[in-house]
Amino acid sequence: MSIVEVNAALVECQRCTRLVQWREEVAATKRAAYADDVYWGRPVPGFGDSEASVLIVGLAPAAHGANRTGRMFTGDRSGDWLFRALHRAGFANQPMSISPNDGLELTDCYVTSSVHCAPPANKPTAAEQNACSDWLEQEIDSFDGLTAIVALGGIGFDRVLRIGRRRAWDVPVPRPRFGHGVELPLTDSLTLIASYHPSQQNTFTGRLTEAMLDEIFARARELGGSPAPS
Fold this sequence. Notes:
11% strand; Uracil-DNA Glycosylase, subunit E; globular
């Protein structure tokens, strides 16, 4: 299926009772700062270039971020960090992502997540991750020329490796530990790159800096045969 067809099916997903109830409850009660907003409150599809060579895999939509706006990493501080970095790397035409109507366009990259519905406390269960995994597989299948998958955080990293093992990709045994900058060739043409997630916990403490994130996306560009802009 094309990525458009995958997303059309994905947004109707009702598999995980806990996540369905939570995403809809948040959309109904809202946060005071967004009281006038109409929340998306559904599974959040990926976003970006349908012919991307770089796939970015996060954790899950934020309750008052993507679950509100309906676009991945849009409307929260994690997204602020991510899209600034993508802009600096030449993947995005602007450094901000506020709403689906803000004019943002991505070139040669696509942003998605391991779980497509906002989970309570931002912690999807193992069962919920497994239930959502085939959406990520379908997304991967919809791209013909992927050269890099950037996993933002340990859950995304682990999920890609689990998918890779089922597909007989070159996943080492035992499975390698997550760490910022860890790089694993999965096939002759596809490499997994690990990055700390741009969560407030990581960015506020300095565990992840903008320079560190820039290095990740410069490497992703290099794997695709295109250098980062000077």
